[in-house]
Structure of N-acetyltransferase domain-containing protein:
Amino acid sequence: MAATPFSLSSSVDLHHHHRHLRHQPPYFKSHIINPKIFPKSTPRFNLILTCSSRSSPTLQEQENPPPTGKFLSYPDLQNLQFLQSYKLFHKLPSGSMLLIRVMQEQEMDMIVELLAESFAESMLLPKAYVKLLAFLVKQYLIERRALMPHAATLIAFHRRDTDEEGGEMEDIQLAGTVEISFDKLGANGSPPTPIPPKEAPYICNMTVKKSLRRQGIGWQLLKASEELISQISSVREVYLHCRMIDSAPFNMYSKAGYSVFKTDSILILLTLQRRKHLMCKQLPPATNSISETNSLYDDDQNLAPTDVQKS
């Protein structure tokens, strides 16, 4: 699932920086993922949700503070701690495990690489523009991370256990990402058209690594986003965009309960943009259980039924 539509809104000037990037070394480098992000033993149930108790910050939270540079009210501090401790584990039918949590600062570069390549793919740009996109995406992610807890970027990791010469090996790789705006303070400054209400939660920039698509990872990212919105925002309507040509994402969003709220005018084609649907869903009232928002999505029957535990 490519990240569409392109909703990056940074203050960086595209043409100004293009002249300065031509002689820079390659942007991308290999990323090492800490295998300790997954528990040593695979849980017997398919899905676990571990949420913050909204108590004092943990050591990990203290080591990865968001660069807000501003005073946080007590409710904002509670929401920040809630986001930083959020973890969702999902077991795929293949036996692989999926971990979804909020992006940490040291993981930004791998998200930048994934989004830049996905944006280039969806916009049909030549590979020469990927590095430029990566530069802009990083500035954007830095700005967005500073808006926590009014916005958050989720990251998904995929773990496949392999048996190599009698020994167990773990193959852990980045699987996907999605961005959430919870309220007006976290709203995108220049959202795509049709423009969603700024005070309403908004989901955007969802992408799944090409080699891991059609396994239900996008569905789990969507459901994790909805669960966080239900816990943090008092507004029940959540919005997202979907290009009219993207039938697979549209079918997934429709299956999840989203309906078309508004559609771009055909005149948008004059600006060399694809027409998009603005889709909306009414979330149920927040509860202590996420079973309502983690129903089975039959993506070629790639997802198993889920059991839920919340601690």
About this structure: Residues 14-23+45-293 form a domain with the Aminopeptidase fold (CATH 3.40.630.30). The chain has a mean pLDDT of 79. Helices lie at 14-21, 59-63, 74-84, 108-122, 130-145, 217-232, 247-255.
